Every structure is written in structure tokens, then in C-alpha cells.
Amino acid sequence: MASTVWKGHLAFGLVSVPIRLVVAARPNNVSFHQINPETGSRVKQKLFDQTTDKEVSRKQLVKATDLPDGRTVFLTDDDMKSILPESSKTMSVMEFVSLNEVDPLYFDSSFYLLPDGDAGKKPYYLLYEALKAENCAGLAKMVRARREYLVLVRPSGKGLALHTLFYEDEVRAVAEYGDGEGVEIGEKELELAQMFVQNLAASFEPQKYEDSYRVALEELLSAKADGQTIETPTAPAAPATGDLMEALKASLNMSKKPPQEESKTKTKATSKAKKSKKQGKVS
User: Which of 85, 123, 171, 253 is geometrically suited to a Cys-Cys bond with 17, CB 3.0 to 4.6 A?
Assistant: First the structure.
């Protein structure tokens, strides 16, 4: 059974669903230690006061932050405890929103939301079917690990998924983003760009892709462990920036299906047509 990271109830109206959360995705990185090559031993960090240059233990430390006006404010553990959100094991849906209105920029972490026990299955799947039919998601707040999160509950596959969301003031505004003033797109340029997109259109199949850096890193570690010599590959040259129309035409030609694939498709279609005609004559 997958490890549960939160357990409680999801409430919508007067309906309460016992649920538990399981992490849906996390980076699959290779972890490293800091090692002294002379001894093969791990190293540890020590903390020093910048003014006295004396070593300080972590137990002596307090939290502090600098205000915009330059003042530094110190906070004790008691100060931090005074503002902790009340522990709650209930997530109450505050409102339902259209999934089309939720920008993925707001998504942070993802979890599977599972019914906790047989008693929760019917209301769980009732909510799942209702959200799926309306193409909606529920917005709620969840207290976890001493923090209050804004969360979104949506239908995903055969169940419900939960995403913690960034708050509005956490999503950065970048002045240059979306500044298309003065840019003129020609009709032919747009037509070629659309054709290129159409030629490469495909279903989303994440299993087709892999983290090539992680694969190369694992191969490097295996080779080093076996005492093999590693050659450093030459970095590919950056693509040249030239005439936009010519680049679009070249890209379009590169994205077209090879003639062999098209002929195979036509051959299959022709053979099926001949087969159906023969069957029609026999009958």
C-alpha cells in the first residue's frame, strides 16, 4: 500500500468523505554526498558567526528576516507557534471552478486522493462523476505540516487528484512576458506555422520520453565504478537564426511523414478495399 501523507475528510456541503492523500509524482534524481577524496569520508558543515568568526551550534540560532526598510526582526519558537494555523482534518470545498479557467502555472505538488475505507467510496465516486460531468474542480484549504494550503480537487483518470496551488501573489509577474507590441505576423507565416504544428500533432504519451540526463548519469556512474574511461561529448552547435519564412518551410519539410509510411498506409487501405469487394462477390 502506498504511503499516506495526510488523512482526514473532504467535505462538500453536508457530505463528508473520509479520504487519504498519496504522493502522485516526485523527481527521480540521483543523490550525491560530499566526500573528502583523501579519506573517502563524508564532510559536515560547521556554522560560524560572521562578526566574531566563532563556531555557533544550531541550538543557539533563532529565525530572523529583513524588512523592506532595513530593520531586522527576530522570531522565537514561541512567536512562530502563535501564528500556526489550527490543525484540521477536514478540507471543505469553498467553491467549484471550471477546469478551463485554472492556469497550470498555479499547480505546485500533486497527490492521489483516495477514499479511506468502504464507507467513503460512494460519496467519493459521486463527487468524481459530478466533477467529470461538469468539467469542474473543487477549491478547498488544507492544513498540513504546519502550513495552510490552497488545494484543487479534480477528476483524473479513474479517480480524484489533488494539487496544492500557489497563491496569487506567489505567481510572478514578468514585465516582458506577453509584450507582443510591434510584432506583425504574416498570413503565410501563420499558415506555415500551423501546418508544422498539425504535422507534429500527437496524443500525449509520456511513456515515450525519458530523462536523458539521468540515464546518462547512471551510465556514467556504472562506467566509473567499472574503471572505464569516459569521453566528453562535443556540445551541439546552436541553430542559426536566419530568414523566418525559409526556416518555416524547412521545418515543415522535416516534419512531413516519410513517403514509405504514406505508401504503407495507402497499401493497407487498398488491400482492405479489395478484400471487402471479394467478400461482396462471394456473398
Answer: 123
Greatest alpha-carbon pair distance for the chain in Å reads 100
Q: Which domain holds residue 120?
A: 4-25+84-169
Structurally, the chain folds into a number of domains equal to: 1
Residue 272 lies in a domain: no
- Whichever domain contains 103, its CATH number is 2.40.290.10
258 Cα distance to chain centroid: 34
Dump pLDDT digits (tens) for 74-102.
Answer: 998 889 888 888 778 999 999 999 999 99
Cell numbers placing 257: 511523414
Within a domain: 210? no
Q: Is residue 131 in some structural domain?
A: yes
